[in-house]
Write a structure and sequence with these properties.
By secondary structure, the chain is mainly β. Helices cover 8% and strands 47% of the residues. The chain has a 22-stranded antiparallel barrel.
């Protein structure tokens, strides 16, 4: 009986203890706009009990008494502690965003750490800076967001390739693009297509699926990737799930696409202007035969069959207002064991030039599962399918942009029946084509399927030691189709042509890494060690078939319909890397940081004797703000000094450049028999191009974290350049790949961001960055100059120095062109052949950067970003036609020709217009170099967040409406600049789809 009474008493006492627990509930919202914040971890201080806020920002948990203190933690938010009010069970709190970038997480692909615990030069771009951007690919979206990262592209074709340089161009003939690492996988990027120079594999990745981009710039940051880190590393982390209730997000936008920049000086002439100017040229050439303009005009009309009543604006005919639309849906969530993220997206955009556009479908899946106390499994799959279509570019007769500038305005684009005009006399055989007909009758399309798949497992042997194994696959297939109709254009003599190419890139990488973390002496000393092994192989398969003799039917354009196989080709290639690496980070009293790395790489791209290379780095950082003597400075919250040095490499050359190779094929066959011939001389001593970057910098946070300032100075020397060294003609080869020469990039980068106002309903953020880089070639083989087209490679000069005959203007008395005799520019000559070449500026900018601001009042926001670049020269490669001074009378010219010399005393830079003139005034010279300085309003967004009180009954937790403009306005310094200043990195303008200006409106919903 006593035992039963004791048991009942114990149960009652236990029940009473549990009854004392208090149920606490509340809501977490943003201090800026009152919006609910999901995913905030709420815990009791000193106790492990906790909860996570749902999509409405609500939480519930149990506390043992009313004196509980709650801790609220969230990513990117200031941690807050709050005491439960007396006699209450409801606790609502507001959290503010972290205002310093020095606490952001840096992801290197092998590890991650808070930026204040690193010694390297990093730049972090977060998802909110990329989401719903009007720029299709991440390489375009990065422009202006990272100090020292130059992103430039001369093509506005949707989904086109964008060249990126980090801290200048570090190679002459080897690749200069950075290494891209996606979810830990080094991937193949750039233009993988054979016949489409604007195809871009990165266009297959939706920026809405990117969580963060980390740009690794100095030795400590990048040298973990050793042999491929010479040009910097761009680490892309895709989104993944987080613990908490499933959050659904949907965004959609649509808008219009136009041309971002057009120059009044480069406007094609009207019929009246062209007739008058050409007649003046005839009179100047044959003054006795045609003594007045009227007689010359009759000659022009008769010779060219001009109908004065026809005035075609061909530029207007080939341009259009494109349309853009994109939709994205995602779901993310999880619990304490399993997290997931899944998304799908669609994008469609037509270009601002006829027959150009892109369609893209994307899908993304990420899973993470805690399989036990020690094992974590992770997998992710990203798939993107793009279909890009666009016209020829450059000098192709079927290029509509070229046609718009070359075709005379007196030609009619359509017949009286409304069909495209394809017949003589306007469009005779062998002449320029009617671009409207080509756009309607021909086809060019490139389809790319990109997939990135990864499997990873973490096994935690102990609290200090973790093992990670990861297998990654980067897969690309490209299908290139082109069709030239049998009725008109390039293939009329072949009765039509159909070409189909297929390429497959299969790239796998297997990484195994051990990580060890240990703290000593009460956390005064902390050590992080990583060591691992990595193997990678990439294989390429390609074939292409070209047939001619197609049926007279525009709907039949596949190669199997061709009567004759014109050519067939196929190839295989591969490359492989094998690596061992070790990384170390050591912290002393959380004040001094020491980092180091060592990596040994072997590459199949070099001969067996010099295949392996050692790459290393060392870095140090000192937190001055944590020293006692520094704590008396109230306005400086954080100050970290950094320094680093190391060796990394570059192996971005052909897969078999080191081998002496022979080729087989129809080019070498003899009398129907198989033939062969040597195609590369090879070099068994070929080895790594070496990059030795030195970096000093500091990170500073001021005014309680409201202002962040980052400054870096670097000196980057590249030696053992992988260069195409000239050979004697007796060898049978013009050049061979060799290690010779050296080059330097030296510069300063500044980044500034701040929260000017963060009080009440009004918020005001600002940012500014600028980068100065000075490139110099230090040495070349035998100190010989290398002239390539309009450029010269010369020791002591910039890599992209223009080397041209020096234009001296127009003789004001005679109107004839003049050039300088030599580089001293003291004597002029009237003969082009007597003029000397000289360096006439560089395509490299002296500085570039970005600045902007974000303003927010209650639920209304305004964000804008300007991008600028100055000091570079831009060359018009087509001016010999568009500014021919009469040399090519069959073609139209541009409005700057109206400023020609006409009488003695005229001061102008345009010579006397002479019909069929042969004075070489239109030949390549510095006359057609322009100052490329420009400022562009790159992004402008006006947004409105619908108050949460309006959404409570809808199930929607957040909704935002916005209007956005991209490349809205462009200012140029040189008013005669003919083309968009954002040319390719060599600043040579080409006839291509114009860089777009877009205006879109959209909505973002979360529920």
């Amino acid at each position: 009986m006593c035992k039963w009474l004791l048991f009942i008493g114990l149960m009652l006492w236990t029940t009473q203890l549990h009854a004392q627990d208090i149920a606490i509930a509340g809501r977490v919202t943003s201090a800026e706009d009152g919006a609910p914040i999901p995913g905030v971890v709420v815990r009791l201080k000193g106790i492990s009990n906790g909860s996570i806020t749902d999509t409405s920002g609500r939480y519930t948990l149990s506390a043992p008494d009313r004196n509980a203190t709650l801790i609220f933690r969230g990513v990117g938010l200031v941690t807050r502690e709050a005491l439960l009010p007396a006699n209450q069970q409801q606790l609502d709190v507001q959290l503010t965003a972290e205002v310093t970038d020095l606490k952001e997480v840096v992801v290197t692909g092998y590890s991650s750490a808070s930026r204040d615990k690193t010694t390297g030069a990093y730049a972090v771009v977060k998802s909110r800076q990329l989401e719903n951007t009007p720029f299709i690919s991440l390489d375009k979206a990065l422009q202006g967001l990272v100090p020292g990262l130059q992103s430039a592209g001369g093509s506005g074709l949707p989904g086109s390739f964008q060249s990126i340089r980090i801290r200048g161009t570090g190679s002459i003939n080897a690749g200069a693009d950075p290494l891209y690492v996606i979810n830990g996988i080094p991937v193949n990027t750039g233009v993988l297509a054979r016949n489409n120079p604007n195809a871009n594999t990165l266009a297959g990745i939706s920026v809405n699926d990117i969580e963060q981009i980390t740009v690794l710039k100095d030795a400590v940051a990048a040298s973990a990737y050793g042999s491929r880190a010479a040009n910097g590393v761009i680490v892309i982390t895709l989104k993944k799930g987080k613990p908490g209730k499933t959050v659904f997000r949907f965004s959609t936008e649509a808008g219009l696409v136009n041309q971002a920049f057009s120059s009044p000086a480069n406007r094609p002439l009207s019929t009246t202007e062209w007739r008058e100017l050409t007649a003046e040229g005839v009179h100047n050439r044959f003054p006795d035969q045609y003594p007045d303009i009227n007689a010359a005009m009759q000659f022009v009309d008769k010779t060219f069959g001009v109908n004065p009543a026809v005035n075609t604006n061909w530029l207007k005919e080939v341009t259009q207002t494109g349309k853009t639309a994109q939709h994205h849906f995602s779901a993310a969530g999880g619990n304490d064991k399993t997290n997931f993220y899944i998304s799908t997206g669609y994008l469609s955009q037509t270009g601002n030039v006829i027959a150009s556009g892109l369609k893209r479908f994307t899908g993304n899946l990420a899973l993470e599962h805690l399989a036990g106390k020690k094992i974590t499994l992770r997998t992710s799959l990203m798939i993107g399918n793009t279909s890009q279509y666009g016209p020829d570019n450059g000098g192709a007769f079927s290029n509509p942009v070229l046609a718009a500038y070359f075709l005379r305005p007196s030609l009619s684009p359509k017949t009286l029946e409304g069909d495209p005009n394809i017949s003589a006399p306007d469009f005779p055989a062998g002449g320029l084509y009617n671009p409207l007909a080509i756009a309607e009758m021909d086809r060019r399309k490139t389809s790319n399927l990109k997939g990135i798949l990864s499997f990873a497992a973490d096994y935690r042997l102990s609290k200090q030691l973790k093992l990670t194994s990861r297998l990654g696959i980067d897969y690309n297939t490209l299908e290139e189709d082109s069709y030239n109709n049998p009725f008109y254009g390039d293939a009329i003599n072949e009765n039509g042509l159909s070409a189909r190419g297929y390429a497959r890139y299969f790239n796998w990488i297997w990484s195994n890494l051990a990580e060890y973390n240990r703290s000593f002496s009460g956390n005064d000393y902390a050590l992080h060690l990583s060591a691992g092994y990595e193997a990678q192989k990439s294989t390429h398969y390609f074939n292409r078939t070209v047939v001619i003799g197609l049926p007279p039917d525009l709907d039949i354009h596949v190669p199997s319909a061709g009567a004759v196989t014109q050519s067939g080709e196929g190839s295989n290639s591969d490359y492989a890397f094998i690596s061992a690496l070790a990384l170390m980070d050591f912290s002393i009293k959380n004040k001094w940081l020491i980092s180091g790395s060592f990596r040994r790489d072997g590459s199949s791209r070099f001969g067996s004797e010099r295949r392996h290379g050692n790459f290393w780095s060392v870095g140090m950082a000192w937190h001055l703000d944590r020293e006692d003597f520094f704590k008396g400075i109230p306005f400086i919250n954080e100050l970290k000094l950094r320094g680093s040095y190391g060796f990394n490499g570059n192996a971005s050359i052909g897969n078999y450049d080191w081998q002496a190779a022979y080729a087989y094929g129809k080019s070498y066959n003899y009398l129907g028999n198989t033939g062969t011939a040597p195609v590369t001389p090879g070099n068994n001593n070929l080895t790594w191009e070496l990059n030795k970057p030195l970096n000093f910098g500091f990170d500073m946070s001021l005014l309680k974290g409201r202002l962040t300032f980052v400054l870096d100075w670097y000196n980057r020397i590249t030696s053992n350049l992988l260069i195409d060294e000239p050979l004697s003609g007796t060898s049978g080869f013009a050049t061979y790949k060799n290690n010779a020469g050296s080059m330097r990039n030296r510069g300063v980068e500044v980044g500034l961001s701040g929260n000017v106002v963060r009080s009440g309903p009004f918020l005001w953020d600002i940012f500014f960055n600028i980068a100065w880089n000075k490139n110099r070639i230090l040495s070349l083989p035998d100190d010989r100059d290398i002239v390539t087209g309009a450029f010269i490679r010369r020791a002591g000069e910039d890599l992209q120095s223009f080397y041209l005959k020096q234009w001296a203007g127009v003789n004001p008395e005679t109107g004839v062109p003049q050039w300088y005799k030599d580089a001293s520019r003291t004597e002029t000559v009237a003969s082009y052949n007597a003029a000397g070449h000289a360096i006439a500026g560089s395509a490299s900018p002296r500085a570039f950067g970005s600045f902007g601001s974000g303003l927010k009042y209650k639920n209304l926001s305004l964000d804008f970003q300007f991008y600028y670049s100055y000091g570079q020269m831009v060359r018009d490669a087509w001016a010999s036609y568009t500014q021919s001074d009469g040399y090519n009378p069959n073609f139209n010219v541009v409005s700057s020709q109206l400023e020609r010399w006409q009488k003695p005393g005229d001061i102008t830079s345009v010579p006397r217009y002479v019909y069929g003139g042969a004075n070489a005034s239109n030949a390549a010279s510095s006359r057609f170099l322009y100052n490329g300085d420009y400022l562009r309003l790159r992004n402008l967004t006006l947004g409105y967040k619908i108050p949460h009180t309006f959404l409570t009954r809808t199930g929607v937790t957040s909704a935002r409406l916005y209007l956005r403009g991209a490349n809205v306005l462009t200012w140029v310094r040189d008013k005669k600049l003919p083309y968009d200043p954002e040319t390719n990195l060599n600043s040579t303008a080409n006839f291509d789809v114009f860089i777009p200006k877009t205006f879109t409106g959209g909505v973002q919903i979360e529920f």
